[in-house]
Design goal:
heterodimer; A: 406 residues; mainly alpha; 22 helices; globular; B: 162 residues; alpha/beta; 4-stranded mixed beta sheet; 4 strands
Chain lengths: 406, 162
């Protein structure tokens, strides 16, 4: 009950903020899952103290091009009656899949993330304070702090395992709803369901509180908001993405490049949310540096070119593991090399290829430790999960276009 | 049907590798990898040239079945097994909280084996230097919840192991 109340408070607060800051109608803001991220972004900036003002300042230019009610309504949370019904059914089924589990963590990183959420029971922003204090030995050192902080906020500071797990599961659900509401699909619904269920590992992660799938889902939502020219909402999502995980910035940059490809590279306003994300990431990195925290996993160095063949071999082996992925990635590769006349599909392909390039670059430029993780089989599937939402959208969008009549 | 050797069929296996793959394949360096790779290339070729989306959807659905058999039946976190497999985790965390509630009773963690490391990180998310004689904590690996956490002098010992 506490976690549900916590999320409801974040959502209503976010909807009010969205209504006040953009021209989005209150009713639309209240029914749109994306609204919750507005209050989350504000709380994140506040948890960083005065440094959070840098993030607030980076978001302001996005206000210069607010979308009107009609456009928000059409592009995001409403649409035709059938689409609304479909969306509600999908929301319900998804909620059942994600929440029908014991509220006890079972996988490695769940404990680490949820442990850090406990700091918020000591006071607002205590997670950030602990992460920036080398004597507290919080792991992984220097990681962006937002995900566990949000779990703590949704838990309203209540320090109980079941509350933390439910809060994190609701957060996963919020990410999924935010991505789903931003899509409009012409594909037959049974096909969409099969595509969503075609990768068993996605089911596993949907029922866990890991951050990889949520990062991919929010990246997709960011892409959709940017495409709908909802710059402020996209900026908010960009800040959140960079605050949750460094890979979130990769999602923002890839989506921005894809939209620029779509709109033309003179449409410089589309870069504003990416600037906000960069500011968010650099502010955190600056604080980490200022407090003498040593980055282990995400420090970048010179590329390890000699490891490139291993990288491709490992990606290929992970992506073709039939137990985890079925033939999902084989189908994605086929779709990527199939020419498409639709510019939106081409933009989505650009995003996906860039995401793969960024993931590869992070492994080549990262410390030896990340390559050891990749060799041990504890990393690459999780990077593929971050790519999955965009890839799943590509597959669902391209299926109808492959009928002979097209 | 007995679970195959590649199944993540214990609480400890799920803890270590449950999020890294549906089976132990990534940790075992993909023993069937070459066959899967060849099959995936063949399917990618077929999908590239086939004009029937229903066939692609059918391929996606069929290929997901082996993974879902693991997810829904063989894995220790399968829906029917998850309640029993999470019980030792909940019990150990409860015992840790009873012996040394965080942050009221700080501890010095002197041993953390892999199987219990994550539980220790939830129970004690920070590790500050304790002034005076600290309460020491040993998290011994092996089987989660196999033995209740016990106190020996100023040391709490959870788990079994040498």
């Amino acid at each position: 009950v506490i976690a549900v109340l916590g999320l409801a408070l974040l959502h209503v607060g976010g909807a009010l903020l969205r209504h006040l800051l953009t021209r989005c109608g209150l009713k639309v803001a209240l029914v749109s899952p994306a609204s919750a991220w507005f209050s989350i972004a504000v709380l994140y900036a506040a948890s960083l103290g005065w440094w959070g003002l840098a993030i607030a300042a980076a978001l302001i230019p996005g206000l210069s091009e607010p979308v009107d009610d009609r456009r928000t309504k059409d592009a995001l949370s409403a649409g035709p009656r059938r689409a609304r019904t479909d969306r509600m059914v999908m929301f319900g089924v998804l909620a059942l899949v994600v929440l029908a589990r014991p509220f006890i963590p079972t996988e490695w990183d769940e404990f680490v993330w949820l442990g850090k959420a406990r700091f918020e029971s000591l006071g607002f922003g205590a997670g950030v304070t602990a992460a920036l204090d080398p004597s507290q030995n919080v792991i992984p050192a220097g990681y962006p702090p937002l995900w566990p902080s949000i779990v703590g906020w949704i838990s309203l500071g209540h320090d109980a395992l079941s509350t933390h797990v439910l809060a994190a599961s609701l957060l996963v659900l919020l990410c999924a709803f935010t991505a789903l509401e931003s899509l409009s699909l012409d594909t037959p619904r049974p096909w969409v369901v099969i595509v969503l269920l075609s990768a068993p590992l996605v089911w596993v992660h949907a029922r866990s509180t890991y951050v990889d799938l949520p990062v991919g889902l929010l990246g997709l939502a960011f892409f959709s908001h940017l495409r709908a020219r909802s710059l402020f909402a996209a900026g908010v999502l960009a800040v959140v993405l960079a605050g949750i995980k460094d890979e979130g910035l990769a999602q923002v940059l890839a989506a921005t490049a894809a939209v620029l490809f779509l709109e033309g590279f003179r449409a410089w306003r589309f870069v504003l949310p990416a600037v906000a994300a960069l500011t968010s990431m650099l502010t955190w990195r600056w604080l980490v540096h200022l407090h003498g925290i040593r980055l282990f996993d995400h420090a970048l160095g010179l590329p390890e070119w000699g490891w490139l063949p291993s990288l491709f071999r490992l990606f290929a082996l992970h992506a073709t593991d039939v137990f985890s992925w079925g033939v999902f990635w084989a189908v994605v590769v086929a779709m990527l090399v199939t020419p498409s006349a639709d510019k939106h599909l081409r933009a989505l392909k650009v995003m996906l290829v860039l995401l793969f390039a960024f993931s590869s670059a992070a492994l080549l430029l990262g410390p030896e430790r990340v390559r050891v993780f990749a060799e041990n089989g504890t990393l690459l599937n999780r990077l593929l999960l971050q790519l999955w939402p965009s890839a799943a959208l590509l597959v669902t969008q391209m299926l109808p276009a492959r009928t002979p009549s097209h | 049907v007995a679970a195959p050797s590649s199944a993540l069929s214990t609480t400890e296996a799920i803890l270590l590798d449950g999020a890294n793959g549906v089976t132990t394949a990534p940790r075992q360096h993909f023993p069937e990898g070459t066959w899967f790779l060849v099959g995936a290339l063949a399917i990618a070729l077929v999908v590239r040239f086939v004009k029937k989306p229903a066939l692609i959807v059918a391929l996606l659905a069929l290929a997901a079945i082996p993974g879902f058999v693991h997810v829904l039946a063989f894995r220790a976190d399968a829906p029917t097994k998850r309640w029993s497999s999470t019980e030792p985790i909940a019990r150990t965390l409860k015992e840790l909280h009873a012996k040394a509630p965080w942050p009221v009773t700080p501890v010095k963690v002197v041993r953390e084996d892999d199987e219990l490391f994550p539980l220790g990180r939830y129970a004690f998310p920070n590790r500050v230097d304790v002034i005076g004689t600290p309460l020491e904590l040993e998290l011994r690996g092996g089987v989660i919840g196999a033995q209740a956490c016990r106190e020996e002098h100023v040391r709490i010992i959870c788990g079994v192991g040498p």
